[in-house]
Amino acid sequence: MSEINKVVLAYSGGLDTSVILKWLQDVYHCEVVTFTADLGQGEEVEPARTKALSLGIKEIYIDDLREEFARDFVFPMFRANTIYEGEYLLGTSIARPLIAKRLIEIANETGANAIAHGATGKGNDQVRFELGAYALRPDIHIIAPWREWNLTSRQTLLDYAEQHGIPVEMKHGKSSPYSMDANLLHISYEGRVLEDPWAEPEEAMWRWTVSPEAAPDQATYIELTYRQGDIVAINDEPQSPAQVLANLNKIAGENGIGRLDIVENRYVGMKSRGCYETPAGTVMLKAHRAIESLTLDREVAHLKDELMPRYASLIYNGYWWSPEREMLQTMIDASQISVNGKVRLKLYKGNVIVVGRNSETDSLFDESIATFEEDGGAYDQKDAAGFIKLNALRMRIAAAKRLK
Question: Among the options 71, 72, 137, 179, which is catalytic?
């Protein structure tokens, strides 16, 4: 503990991290710097400054990271059509490497030799924060209070806060029964009633989406413009990456799109049930695959699909800053040079339906060859006979031996 001179704390201003702040001061006897990130979670972050000041903090960082988050983390991930275990769009996972990066940057700026976070010893986030931090600064000290202290319940945290004069906003009757995490890409729900995988989530739990049953009876049509694999406009209106996420969240959420209820395999070994709302991401995944279907070579597209599960696992498990993820990203980004054009979608009662795709410059779809009408000799159908026989040769040899 004597090695720690200053620590940068990932600070939300809530009960857990406020207790951690005071605990760091008391146990490590070090100066604490707080860092609060605005990732588009939809909650006011400035109150964290007031609370940190009341606890004697002199260096306070409150950063708007929405554009960086969307541009440098979410968009690169969606170029790969990334999805974990067939369903999860990695909304929490993709935010952690950015937080780790900023923690290290602030540590370097302030002369701190340690960082601290409020992730528990049971979850994935401790791994994600710490792998990222070590990759960016190998000599950093990391303090994870949930692995050190004996405060093991909400009541013990409340007792500690009362004993040490830590202000706690008690919202009687209004607090969520779930553990929640939100950013521009998604909002997650875990714990309490959701710990029974048989229990259906309450309708009142969902915050960003209407139920498919309550969605409008009239479909909503939208057009997305792609440039090198990224959405740059919605309905021909130019958008920044953060604007794309915010606007698609609104449009898709109003149409009942983006709800997910899964049991996932955590990196630490346990299964966990969680519910997620990812309206924009659900639309983006469908649309990106549609524009790629028109512009990517078959073998390139298939190779991407083969590598995607590995890429998804790297993000889920906290290896965003690893050399293997960066290598895969270089390949993925190279594949997106020709992914340009438009996708037209119909959003209707929880469904994302592709109804059109077009690329004036990079489409590999040749109507003169694909047509069922007269193709003018562009494709000689007789050639298919030799193609089939050659590909069947090994199976014909094996079958002949069996028949003997």
Answer: 179
Can you tell me the distance from the alpha carbon of 353 to that of 333, in angstroms, rounded to the nearest whole number? 26
CB count, 10 Å around CB of 157? 20
Chain mean position to CA 382: 49
pLDDT digit string (tens) for 211-243?
999 999 999 999 999 999 999 999 999 999 999
Active site residue 181: no
Catalytic residue among 16, 72, 261, 362: 16
| Of 125, 325, 335, 359, catalytic | 125
User: What pLDDT score was predicted for residue 358?
Assistant: 98
Query: Which CATH architecture fits 6-65+90-163?
Result: 3-Layer(aba) Sandwich (3.40)
**Fold entry, domain 179-296+338-358:** Argininosuccinate synthetase, chain A, domain 2 (3.90.1260)
Is 153 annotated as catalytic? no
Write the pLDDT tens digit of every residue in 237-278: 999 999 999 999 999 999 999 999 999 999 999 999 999 999
User: Tokens standing for 140?
Assistant: 């950093």
Give yes or no: 96 in active site: yes
16 counts as catalytic: yes
Say which residue, 14 or 356, is predicted with more confidence: 356
Task: Give the active site residue among 66, 79, 96, 325.
Answer: 96
Strands 259-265 and 271-277: antiparallel
Place of tokens 């190779």: 303
Tell me the H-state helices in 170-278: 241-254
